[in-house]
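Hey,
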Amino acid sequence: MIEFESIMIDEESFAINYADAKSYYHRALQFQAEGYRPSLAFNIASVALERYLVALCDLYGEYPRNHNYITLMRTVETLVEVPKELNKRIKVMDWIFGICSIDEYRHPNPDETDMENALVLCVEVQKLFDQKRMAIIAALAKRISLVTVS
């Protein structure tokens, strides 16, 4: 854990979630390019999106209470400026999975449009990461690891 701007940031958790998000996203693109079912690429892209959102929370030392899209976005929108339409489109992802309703659970079969949307959402969320902040956190983490190793 490192302290940055008087908050504690788990740089290892951030690094893992961010790297996993990128890996899931690239795998979803591979599935799409190789002609796999849209629902498979959608599901992998959805995991990537969730991991990107968790990584954003990690970057600011926040820990979301839940990992559904609505709860994640409620946390993320307190940390960074999120375009209104993007916020809405991500929160709608819970509807696709039927996460929000115990009484009316449903899990439709995602189609090509859903897959494309999930992939685009990943790209849009990638733009929310403050690259300067990420570089500072990485430099601090490296400096701390050098001190502890010496």
